Amino acid sequence: MAELHTDGGETDTTCRVCGDAITKKHTHRVVTAVEDGQTTYDHFCTDDCLEAWVE
Ligand SMILES: [Zn+2]
Asked: How many angstroms is it from 6 CA to the middle of ligand 1?
């Protein structure tokens, strides 16, 4: 009986640029990348942060 479930929808997802916690923000952007066969997800709180990271 392992207790491995995560608690109620709360995640540690934070913006890659500004470090803000991202909790159901409607401006939330996710960039998916595949490196060495592993899928990674980069999260950004807004398009502005996404653009800042891409540049
Ligand atoms: Zn941000």
From this structure: 24
